[in-house]
Amino acid sequence: MAIPYLIGAIAIGISLFFNRNKKINYILVAIFLLLQWAFTVYEYNHQNIMEFDYFLPDALGILLLFTISIIAVPAFYHSYVFFSKNEDNPRNRAMYYASMVVLIFALSLAYLSNHIAVTWIFVEMTTLSASALIYHRRNLRTLEGTWKYLFVCSISITFVFIGILFLSIAVQEVGDTNLTFVSLLKNASGLDVFWLRLAFIFIFTGYTAKIGLVPMYTAGIDAKDKAPSPVGALLSSVILNVGFVGIFRFYEILAQTTLFSWANNIIMISAVLSIFIATVYMIKVKNIKRMLAYSSIEHMGVVMLGIAAGGIGYYAAILHLIFHSFVKSGLFFQMGQIYRVYNSKSIYDVGNYFKYNLTGAMVILLGFISAAAMPPSGMFVSEFLIFRSLFEANYIFVLIFVLLLLTIIIWAFGKNIFKLLFTPAVDFKDENIEHIKPYESISQFILLGLVVYLGINPPHQMVELINEAVKNLPL
Amino acid sequence: MTNVLLIVFAMSLIYLSIANRLMSYVKILAFQGILLFGVSFIELGEMSPLNLVFILLETIVFKTIAVPLFLKYVIQRNEITREAEPFVPNFISLIMVTSIIVITFLLSNTIENTQLNKVYFVAALSSLFTGLYIIGTRKKILTHVMGFLVIENGVFILSLAVGNEMPMILNTGILLDLFITVLLLGIFVNKIGNVLHGGDVNQLRNLKD
Amino acid sequence: MISLIMIVLTSLLFMGIVIRTKSIATGRKGPGLFQPMKDILRLWKKGAVYSQTTSFIFQIAPSIYFASIIMAILVIPFGHYKGIISFNGDFVFFAYVLALGKFFSIIGALDTGSSFEGMGASREALYSMLAEPAFFILMGSFALYTGHTSFHEIFISLHFGSYISYGLGVLATFVLVMIAMIENSRMPVDDPKTHLELTMVHEVMILDNSGFDLGLILYGTNLKFAMYGALIANFFTGSFSVLISIIIFLAVQFIFAITVGILESFSARFRMGNNAQFIFTLTSISILIFFGVLLIMGKFV
Description:
Shape of chain C: globular
Order of helices and strands of chain C: HHHHHHHHHH
Strand content of chain B: under 5%
Radius of gyration of chain C: 19 Å
Low-confidence stretches of chain B: none
Shape of chain B: globular
Distance between the termini of chain B: 52 Å
Number of helices of chain B: 7
Oligomer: heterotrimer
Distance between the termini of chain C: 41 Å
Helix content of chain C: over 70%
Number of helices of chain C: 10
Structural class of chain B: mainly alpha
Number of domains of chain C: 1
Low-confidence stretches of chain C: none
Largest interface: A-B, 38 and 37 residues
Radius of gyration of chain B: 17 Å
């Protein structure tokens, strides 16, 4: 169903772009959500059946597809709330919805794509649509964020392309010049090691812009800061997933060759550096959205540590990825409400949130507990498993160092969150603040509750899917 | 002959490191377009004519004529000052670019693949790293875009080296080139030019912690 | 033997052609072709004045400088004939004997105790240091390309067949012309006619020399130009007979002199700070040529 989905989504996108009427926009968005869910369910039922030689709904793709379909619903809902509070002009709103539709369908197809160049094309499309979304409020600062994001992502995409070129040189030795992941996996042991090494370096560096690791994480921070909150939620959840998909599929190929331990070293270095950078910046950051963005970097570092460690770490990494998507998007959705109450994103201007918005404050508290990986959050389970895999793989010093850094991060994060929740704000006039209706926070409770439920009692279909996603990796 | 052209290409990278004025950068980019046209003309004789014409048109029309003219228009319209303002003195840039070329050369000696012409590899990688260096050491936003164009030229050379077996890769690379440069140049530099005057990167420094 | 004679003969006329070209380019008629030689002969007839602050170094430096140039000329071949001295690795000898001469002229300038001369000497030392790798890498490329290490053998076995050899030849000519301009302190590195002391490089080093010594130094400049011209001419006189070689040699020297004159007339001197960068660019370009040769010969695996 990939091609009908593609055509339908493009049609909806184009008609959203040209149609400025509010009601028709909402109807089209609802149709798109229905299409998205229909596509997800269809692909789940047709697992592992190749379509058109380019799309293969394998286990990882289906898991992430479910994730994005679940997150897409509150994303559109909160966009609707966002637009009902800010009277934007219809042209900007149409552009926003059209770009969001393009972003979501490009991501869905990128998760499913089987050919390395097709993945690359769709990731490129996500860069462009995300830039259009970041530039929604047209002022100098969003321009700056959009420019940085577009520029760094373009350079990274060029790096990935160079990696693909090196990969094609490596493939020429085998004779089968098909660049689909299926055939690459089959021929993995015959590929030329030298070119494969170079290809991995370039592809990994390129995709770190999307997943938010060292060295190219800088683009994402500014982007998540300047974008409207629903967009920030998407940027810090599902786009990180597409970066993971890009790296992971190539990592699966490398796992069959002699470069496996070298690749693990590279990933581990990058992951530890990312957590370190996140720690340093979390201590000094004063903008809540940037703090959440750096927290995403730290979580992605933990995910890649799980991948590098191996064993139970593979399962835990994918689990952590899915949970993080839900938690972080929930926090970003809540951020929109915080901004409406305080009209500021700085930690100095906020405080005593319990008084102004009880349900929102509950969301923040629960979200903080989840993001800091404390029980009962599912992220506790996944982080614990990752630490266990590090211990079992004899990376003791890395483990101790990372635990220290994570402690510092929890302290910094908690300091800011508790100031937001409990300490009275300085110089804040609370006469005319907006009263947020409690039902707007329902979506975030659902997301956080999902994380708790899936952590404590994962349904066996999910466990099966994750186990199948990592079946190609050595034990 | 392609070897000579690629060595002249590497020389243009050295000149890029010491050039002072923005228009010198633009002229070097146009010159690189001509060199790439020559290389692709000689190298790709055996491809299907349609593909070949497409690639040749892309190098001549796009890299040599359209993009430099557009850059010139952007410079004039936004009244960007003539100087390319570097953070490091030009002498150090020269030493850095020379050492980039030397290191790339030494790196290319570890290749045992006899099919790949090493001169392509050296030229492509050195222009990649030179482009990154230019992006990192210049103040103006427009020189960042020009550094990106140098990277694109490097990617083009690399895809020429590889693309004899797979013309699709060449086409994808060229489409990447076209699309990204039109996007970067066309939409955003004009928008930035509307908002900022002078094109100084320092005005885009507000997003910090 | 024949190369020594040819170079000495050419040197008599070289500066005259340069100065004449510059005059014609600026619209004047200019002095006669032998005028510089007549000036030098006049200087040779005079006695020298030595300052009280100098030591014996100042008195022997110009002679050593001149002697080093003569020794360097002895190495240069001419067509089929080798120079009076020829052995493996003689281009290294060539470069370093010239460096010896330059060293003595530098310490001779330092010996006078004048700060201006010291400043010129330090600049001279810097530019020579930056230009030296260019020369070595260039000759090294040729040595690699032909497989021999002596001037005579390199030039004999150099034949222009492939594109790369043409490219090498063109680039080598360009680099050698530039090195000649740098070594002789001409434009665009140093203006021989400037009298602003803070901007002089070579002229300031010879401010205190007089009489016979000054004549030696000035004639040394002529000889050096003719020497570099002979090197360039050797690229073109590969395997022709003696008579045609002589004609080609003279033609190349003539064109070289006119080129020097035109370059001097139409370019301004670089800012002092940019000189180092300019000279290093030559080194970078020669490194590129060297690598190009290596890659194409496939000799570095």
